[in-house]
Amino acid sequence: MKQIAILGAGPAGIEAASLLASLGHPVTLYEKESEPLGNITDKAFLFPNFADAQEVAVTMRAKLDNPNITLRCNTEVTQLLPSYIAGFQEENLTGTPVWKVNDELYDIVLLATGYTPFDAHRKEELGYGIYPGVHTSLEMEKMIREKRIINSVGDSPKRIVFLQCVGSRDEKSGNHYCSKLCCVTAVKQAIEAKKQLPYCEVYVFYMDLRMWGQGFEEMYRTAQQDYGVNFIRGRISEAGGTFDGRVQIKAEDTLLGRPMKMTSDLLVLMVGMEASKGTRELATQCRICGEYGFAQSKDPHLHDCQSDAPGLYVAGACKRPMTLSDSINDGRSAAYEILTSL
Amino acid sequence: MNRFGFQISTARSIDLDRADAKLRQRLLEAVPSYRYCIGCGGCTATCSAGAFTDFNIRKTHFLFSRGEVDKLSPTPMPDVDLNKCMLCGKCTLVCPRGVNTRGLIMQMRQLLVNKQS
After folding, report:
1. Which CATH fold topology does A117-273 show?
2. Which residue among A150, A339, B30, B102 is buried most deeply as judged by most CB within 10 Å?
3. A158: distance to nearest CA of chain B, Å?
4. Which residue is closest to B28 within chain A, CA to CA?
5. How would residue A128 be classed by pLDDT, with cut points 50, 70 and 90?
6. What pTM did the predictor assign?
7. Residue B93 belongs to what domain range?
8. Residue A158's closest chain B neighbor by CA?
9. Number of compact structural domains in chain B
10. Angle, nearest 10°, between helix axes A216-225 and A182-196?
């Protein structure tokens, strides 16, 4: 029986583990945090159907209740090396390489180490960490989840401004790519904010609104039609604080060709997705690190869950920004690729 | 436009804190489909008046929405003269979101007249 390790107990890792385990293959699932599914349990609702994120997480978590799955939480993998790089000789009988995960040996490894949100401090001009009214989309999600959207002095905000593409499509922060799900996340959060605070003015500043997925464009329309969310095409260039703890922003209304300014109680920065620390380090160690620190698959069309390293598979947002459903599907695909190789 | 002179220049920046939000609100009440506008410019591209003059529907309604009504007719020297529109309705035919753009122009005219009087 080949030994299988899955690194990362996010949606991709869990889906792959549960599929392999249900078909009788023992897997060891590594997770650096104390609980699996951290990025899902952080959320309040999921686009596009406003599913309760906690319920989805509970269902995903239940997939781990299988005797073939060994879940190792609080275990950060810092070493991932194949025998041909590490130089040790424990080749198995078929001549394929053996993988060293920390100090243990496996025949097959699935990298599912995921993403990390962009650190908004790096866009200093937007005032995150400087002005109390500036938040990231993660903090906004937390306020929505706790049904407690407040401004910097603890009152209900009268105006909320969302800014898209923070750390995405931005050469200055080194990320040329689109993080793909911030657009719809801002629409979702704008709708949630209006549900909780009907009299609050909500603005979304965007460069392009990329409503690519099923139901996304309809959500955008719903935000305009039923919730009166204002969409302004233009990127906020800078944010400053006011004496009463609000945020003053400057942007261009590019559809008018005129500069614009306004004060807002809250400025929410829609932070993009970057390769997580684990993704960067492990992909570099086993020489499959692609652009921007994401893991590189063998071929984006035909072999997207395989890597150039034999016995090493890749799934989920460690490859590129992915939604939850993308990641689940990708974990399933990776499990299928692993099964066919056994 | 005066390209040389000794006038005092006023700020070009739109200040949404000072904008009169009521005008946009009234416009939305009169033309509810206006809230679907995504600013694509289809109306402006097909506009008969826009083909021969500098009339620009997209710019006009955005100025109106941002409270920049001083720039619109019926002021003495408007940036955009709403009366250039001949109400042919081609803009309404091409709008991908089904906005009643022709109604929008008529309502903006009406609201500006009411504001003056």
Report:
1. FAD/NAD(P)-binding domain (3.50.50)
2. B102
3. 12
4. A228
5. very high
6. 0.91
7. 21-116
8. B17
9. 1
10. 30
